[in-house]
Amino acid sequence: MTGVPLGQHISTGATVCGDPLNWFTRARYISNPSLFMLGMPGLGKSTLINRMLIGLAAQGVVPLVLGDLKPDYVDTVRALGGQVISIARGVGGLNVLDPGAMGAVAAKIGGAAGQVLAAETHGRVLNMVAALLTIVRGRPISDHEQSVLSACLRHLRERTPQGHTFRLPQLLSVLEEGPPDVRQVTLDRGQESRYRDAVDPLHRSLLGILDGPLGDTFAAETSTHVDPDATAVCIDISRIGEADSQLTAAAMLAAWSDGLGTVAASHALADAGLAPRRWFFTVLDELWRPLRAASGIVDRIDALTRLNRSLGLADAKITHTLKDAEALGVEADKAKARGFVERAGMVACAGLPRTEMEELARVVGLTRREIELVSSWSSPPGWAQEGGNEEPPGRGRFLIKVGGRPGIPIQVAITSTERHLHDTNTRWIANGEAEQLMAERAALMRTVTAGDLPEIGDRDSWPLNPGYR
Prior knowledge:
It contains 19 helices and eleven strands. By secondary structure, the chain is an alpha/beta fold. Helix 5 packs across helix 6.
C-alpha cells in the first residue's frame, strides 16, 4: 500500500500500490530505486509507466521522459503543465557539446563544488561525443582517441568565454589546428606526420557526423533547453523515421545525457543551499533501439545511466524481451545488458513466451507457477466477429518481482482520463473516431490547464487506497 496505486491483486482483489521511488525511500523494499519492465508489444507497458508518472507527479516528483518514440507520454506531460521538447531533422536539435544546466550551475556555485560539477560536465560531454562516434563507426573508439577528444574539449572550454557554448565544427577546427596541449596527448614528438597519423581516423569520423545523417541534428545550437524548474519534461523524438536507426539511437542517448545532466545540476544547487531539493523519475523507453545501434554502445548507456542512489532519482527502463540483449554481437555487451535487469530493484513482466520467461528466470528467479502465469498472458485474443472488441488476455496484467520474493500479479484498469491521454493506437482508428478522440483530448487538456481536475479517487473507475490523495 506504499506508493502510486497501480491496480488490483489478481488473486485477492486488494489494491496494490508501488513504484521504484516510494519502495526505495518509504517502504524500503528495494535497495535500488529502479524498475526494469519487459513484455510483448500492446500489453500495456507504457500504460503502467504512465500511471506511475501521474501518481509521482502528484507527490511533487518531476517526471522526465527521455526519448519518447511513439509518442506515448507527450499528452500526459502537457496535461501536467510540463515541457515538451521535439528533436528531429528540421524540427529541433541538440548541441551535444553544450554543458547545459550542469555548466550553468557549476559557474553559479563556484568554488570547489563548482569545480567538481564542471569536471563531471566535461566527462558527460566527452561520453556523449564518444557515443556518437561509436554509432557512426559501428564500433567503439579507442582509449587513445578518447584522450585526444578530452584534450580538444578542454582546450575549447578554456578558450571559450563564460556563458558561451561551442559546437562540433569548432571541435573539428581544434583537431585540424593541433594546439600544443592536444599534440602532447598524441605523442607526436614534434613531427607533423605522427600527429596526422594519430588524429586522422578521428578527424574522418567527426566529418562523418557533420556531413552524415546526424549533423543537422547535433551540430547546431540546442533549439530548446530543458527547463530545470518544469513540473515534467518529455523529449519527443517520434518524428524521426522508423528506419533511421542511427539518428534514433543518437537522439535517445543525447536526450538521456541532457536530462540526467539536469538532474545532477538540480541536486548540486540543492547541496549548495541555492534551491529546494527535488526528486526525479526518469523513463527510458524502447531500450533495445540504442543497444542495437553499434557494438560497444552498451558501455555508453551504462555510463550515462549509472547514477548514485543518493541523487534522488528513480528510473524505469522498458524493453520487449531479454533477447534484445542476446542480439548484441559481443559477449561482453550481452553480459552488461543483462546487468541492467540484475541491478534493477523491481522487475515488472507483462506477457512473454515461455522460452523467454525461462531465460528471465535465470536472471530474476521465477517459480514454475510464475512462468506459466506470465506465459499465459502472451496469448492472442480469441476469435471474434468483425467489429468485436475482445482484448488479449494479458493486456493490463503484470507480475512484479522484487529479488527472490514471490511475484505480485496485478490487473491495471485505466480511468477515462488516462484513456484519453494515452492511446498508442491512434493511427489505427477510423478518421471520424480519430477526430473525436483528438477533440476530447484537447478539451481534457484545457480542463487540466484551468486547474479543474477530475476527482482522481472515483471508486467506480479506479480502486484506490482511500487515504491516498
